[in-house]
Amino acid sequence: MLIGKRLKEIRLSKGISQQALADKIGVSKVSVCGYENSKRIPSLPIVIKLAEVFDISIDELLGRDIKIIAEKDKPYYATIALEELNFLKELRKNPPLHNKTLKDPKRSVKILKYNQTN
């Protein structure tokens, strides 16, 4: 479960201390530290409180949904599997291929399908 890492990332991005977060969700600072270090797993009520405090979905807190800014700065949420994310990370390691894929994604998928059958 990625909640520890995600929790810390989100807390830091919001500029909230562990103590301030602990006060908001009704636990000790030690508990928040344990959640972030993956030594403790927060209960469902605590997960719900965390999502409410950060104004995000539980899926986003768990690393399952990613906020994406689309056209005209309108945010929407998209679910992406860890395997898909790993694929994108690998693709970014090859800038020419990455750029070519982004320029014409339909063609790239056709090439992948063709290679899969041959």
Largest sheet: spatial strand order:
1-2
Largest sheet: 2 strands, antiparallel
> Helix fraction?
55-70%
What is the number of independent domains?
Answer: 2
Mean pLDDT: 86
State the separation between the terminal residues, measured CA to CA: 37 Å
Overall shape: elongated
| Element order: H for helix, E for strand | HHHHHEEHHH
CATH class group of the largest domain: Mainly Alpha
What is the helix tally?
8
Oligomeric state of the chains in view: single chain
Task: Assess the beta-strand content as a share of residues.
Answer: 5-15%
Topology, number of strands: 2
Low-confidence stretches: none
Q: Fill in the CATH topology of the largest domain.
A: 434 Repressor (Amino-terminal Domain)
Explained architecture:
The protein has 118 residues and is mainly alpha-helical. The protein has helices at residues 3-13, 18-25, 29-36, 44-54, 58-61, 82-92, 95-103, 105-117; strands at residues 65-69, 75-79. It has a two-stranded antiparallel ribbon with strand order 1-2.
Q: Any key phrases for this structure?
A:
118 residues, mainly alpha, 434 Repressor (Amino-terminal Domain), 2 domains, two-stranded antiparallel sheet, 8 helices, 2 strands, elongated
Question: How is the secondary structure organized here?
Answer:
Elements: H1 3-13, H2 18-25, H3 29-36, H4 44-54, H5 58-61, E1 65-69, E2 75-79, H6 82-92, H7 95-103, H8 105-117
Antiparallel strand pairs: 1-2
